[in-house]
Amino acid sequence: MSTVRESPAPAAEPGGRWSSIAVLALSTFLVVTSEMLPVGVLTPMSEGLGITPGTAGFSLAVTGVVAALAAPFVSRTIGGADRRHVLVAAALVLAAGNLITAIAQGFAVLALGRVVVGFAMATVWALAAALATRLVDASRAGPAVSTVVSGVAVASVVGVPFGTFLGDIAGWRSAFGLLALAALVLAAGLAALLPALPPRQDAGSGEHSGSLLAIPAVRRGLIAVTLLVTAHFAAYTYVRPVLEELSGIHGAGISLLLLVYGLCGIVANFAAGAAATRRVRSTVLVLATGITAALLALPLVGTAPISAAVVLVLWGFSYGGVSVCSQIWAVQAVPERREAVTGLFVGAFTGSIALGSFLGGVILDGVGSSVLLCVSAGVAAAAALVTAPGGAVAARSGVAA
Questions:
Q1: S-S: 172 plus which of 41, 78, 99, 225, CB 3.0-4.6 Å?
Q2: Rounded CA gap, 169 and 167, in Å?
């Protein structure tokens, strides 16, 4: 069996390395904001393009599906290219996708823009966390990955609300235009702040990405992530109508609760990242249990604003760590093939977002919010069972319990 060695990045001062981590975090922030902004400007976008809100909302699914399909193949596609150059190119592609969205006059061009954004998103997510572990000492890998992945939570708390506000005062096209400009700035930042990052050198390995599924720890992680993200988005996508129905909260009250949820998610991202570096499987088990408890509690005690807020806090603290834990699980499962396994996990993650949103809508329309929350809780509980010691899929020793 051949030995796989990673080409080290050029030595850098600690401050320089963390500036590289920061620009990678900006990358995840911008791709997630670009992906999710249509949610905040859905009504003016649909009116401006002369399409229904449902059709405009489909543009969000387009981005997620493209990212899910493309991410597992990023590592093989870019081959021996310097990863710094690849990320700079991805930022330029992101700028193009947002610009196409901003100038779209109909759904066909809008969809094209979202496809382009999806390819940029797949590339950033397939590389960012894996590269973060190369830019710092092994003892700081957890905080580095947590910082990079924090772009997800910050996009939800800051990026999308700010883009929505700008869309309200200057038009939705201006919001996407600003994202295109920000992506150009990101490309310059990546070129300036990242060191040369040559690919890993495989000494005649002959392995293919499909063989990753033969590794028990990879299979267990993919099953857990798929179940957990599907459960979360089946419920969270429709959290506004659920809260309105259960607790009677509307308007600004919903916005305040979601802000609290997002802030809890940022805190959880760093706390879970630190814990997962030592015991990733146990950390995911705790998160899955917390999500299950929150989903079960919401229809039971979420009938008053205060108790609903408490449930949202638990939910935010629990789900906020899922992204970083999935990245750390992937890297620990196959440390010698970080990019390939990270791309595989990103594909499962983004695909599960689309699956959860679709299934949640079907259940909500068919049988109501209480059944939706119970079914979602059941799926989250299944994720906990898969993750628990002695679960159906045995873990490889590379993933800490």
A1: 41
A2: 6
pLDDT, mean over the chain:
83
Structure tokens at 294: 């929150």
Strand (E) or helix (H) holding 247:
helix 239-247
Do the beta carbons of residue 59 and residue 109 sit within 8 Å? no
Alpha helices in 302-368 (DSSP H): 305-319, 322-333, 338-367
Output the six-digit token pair for 135.
């830019």
- What is the 3-class SS of 166-230, one letter each residue? HHHHHCHHHHHHHHHHHHHHHHHHHHHHCCCCCCCEECCCCCCHHHHHHCHHHHHHHHHHHHHHH
> What is the C-alpha to C-alpha distance for residues 394 and 219, in angstroms, rounded to an integer?
9
| Spatial separation of the C-alpha atoms in residues 379 and 373, rounded to whole Å | 10
Residue 334 φ/ψ, nearest 5 degrees:
-140, 75
Rounded to the nearest 5°, which phi and psi values hold at 201? -105, 110
Which residues have CB under 8 Å from 359's CB, separation 6+?
A: 230, 234
What is the rounded distance in angstroms from the CA atom of residue 345 to the CA atom of residue 257?
30
Long-range contact pairs involving 205-209 (C-beta distance under 8 Å, separation at least 24):
205/2, 205/4, 206/2, 207/337, 209/72, 209/73, 209/75, 209/76, 209/340, 209/343, 209/344
pLDDT digits (tens, 9 = 90+) for 21-54: 999 999 999 999 998 888 777 778 888 888 876 6
Quickly list DSSP for 84-123: HHHHHHHHHHHHHHHHHHHH--SHHHHHHHHHHHHHHHHH
Q: Is 307 helix (H, G, I), strand (E, B) or coil?
A: helix
The answer to whether the CB of 137 falls within 8 A of the CB of 14 is no
CB hemisphere CA count around 328 (13 angstroms): 34
In the predicted model, is pLDDT for residue 155 greater than 90?
Answer: no
Q: In the prediction, which pLDDT does 355 show?
A: 84
CA angle 270, 41, 294 (to 5 degrees): 40
* Spatial CA neighbour of 236 closest among 28, 68, 379: 379
